[in-house]
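Appendix B: complex inputs.
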Amino acid sequence: MSAALKIDQFNLLDDESCDARIEAAKAILGDRLAILGHHYQRDEVFKHAHFSGDSLKLSQLAAKTTAEYIVFCGVHFMAEVADIVTDGQRNVILPDLAAGCSMADMANLVKVRKCWEELSAILDPDEKVTPVTYINSAADLKAFCGNHGGIVCTSSNARAVLEWSFGRREKVLFFPDQHLGRNTGLTMGIPLEQMVTWDFMKPRGGLTDDEIRNARIILWKGFCSVHQMFHPAQIEKFRREVPNGHVISHPENSYEVCQASDFVGSTEYILRIVRAAEPGSHWLVGTELNLVNRLRDEMKPKGVTVQFMSPMVCMCSTMFRTDPQHLAWVLDNLVAGQVVNRIRVPQEIAVPARRALDLMMEVVD
Ligand code: 13P
Ligand code: SF4
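Resulting structure:
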């Protein structure tokens, strides 16, 4: 077998040369290859994807595909999920290994275990608390949930997952995104004072025993660096300028932004609602810039105006790491018989993580 091609050679290529290589490799590999693209990918990469979707749809697509190679144009946790749901039987490839998720990094196994232990001083967490991890988390946290009667959720099924969780135990420990947990709890009628925030930098989360005892949801203090750029003042300005306009936001936004929005949902939901909009309508969208720009261009000929919520350019910088150069590099290696950047989750993590993921799939079915 020949030596793997080096990324350095590809970093010198312009986008057009990469496009030609990517298309040629796709033609050679045929249905042995599935390229999955998250909605936040930049256009230069997104256009090459065989399938696109939100986190839930992409994990379902990964589970279904029979392709030998799954090239995941998304971030690290998504590729881990694809490896877990395919039992390590496919080659799941992340074109740039540095494509992580800053929110996922805000929770880790050491800190979550410490939290669980600290909760044990006040109550029996394995009897009273369902651990729920947002899919935006490392595989070992999904395994933690699988080992403690817990479950995974995505932004499109968080409510169904929380309902399932409360059907089993009286409290939920939700990590790493406080906003998705809080915004979902509110839709279920849980008052704000029964959702406390666990500050993982402080002993016992910075909470009193009573605050923990009275809480229904304990929210990990994580957040998305992209969605924190959106603010209610941007919505107020839009409402003044376009009084009959509509506002749609992702649930990773703050409580204040979601409360001020007309619609709240996952990336797939946002696309569905705006694509069904009346001609002549105006939409302010609070999610990542690449998705919003594509939607704006798609809807313009249909007479629907789509506007990005922030005056700043806020992209997911880690999604942005996947560029045509890295995509061309991993595909040319596959053509040459080399698998580079394969994501593999060890069995001892994959098995319990799969349990928590399978539960999620059952709950949403
Ligand atoms: P969804 O794709 O589930 O809407 O989530 C958005 C996101 O932040 C992915 O990391
Ligand atoms: Fe993570 Fe936010 Fe980027 Fe999604 S948009 S991958 S949550 S940093």
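The chain has a mean pLDDT of 97.
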